[in-house]
């Protein structure tokens, strides 16, 4: 068995967890859709579905963090960076039937996070750490733009919450309007704390 098999299982599980949630995704489906032998799942993930979900969250933490960091690096101004980041997510919802599954690597994982908050302490903590990590990227950019520590803490948490909420609404409405709305509000929010 190779690392390629492990990656294929993890990629498949991550995609399914995003769109079906932890409880809506079965190990047999992961095995079937990844095209992997049944024994390979437990070989790479001996603790089963919980370990697989934890590794999927950590993978998302890094991937989405890299996307956020890309936008924060691309623009000197934090407002422009946040706007570009939010509009890039909004673009994912412009497909005819809403978000396509290939776009999941850029999307926050609200379904998995909401499920785990009540059902699984291990996964709740990993989700919480993930949100803190993303917030830290916003925080660093805000500090670099001259915001006070207190303002940067408040704004980084608010921006993260707004994005997560807008993504959830965009998914349920099959529309990018909620994301477009927060992109319009961000400049006024930043100005209030500057």
From TrEMBL:
InterPro entries: Homeodomain-like_sf (IPR009057), HTH_TetR (IPR001647), Tet_transcr_reg_TetR-rel_C_sf (IPR036271), YxaF_TetR_C (IPR054156). Residues 26-45 bind DNA. Residues 3-63 form the HTH tetR-type domain. The keyword Transmembrane does not apply. Keywords: DNA-binding, Transcription, Transcription regulation. The keyword Nucleus does not apply. This is TetR family transcriptional regulator.
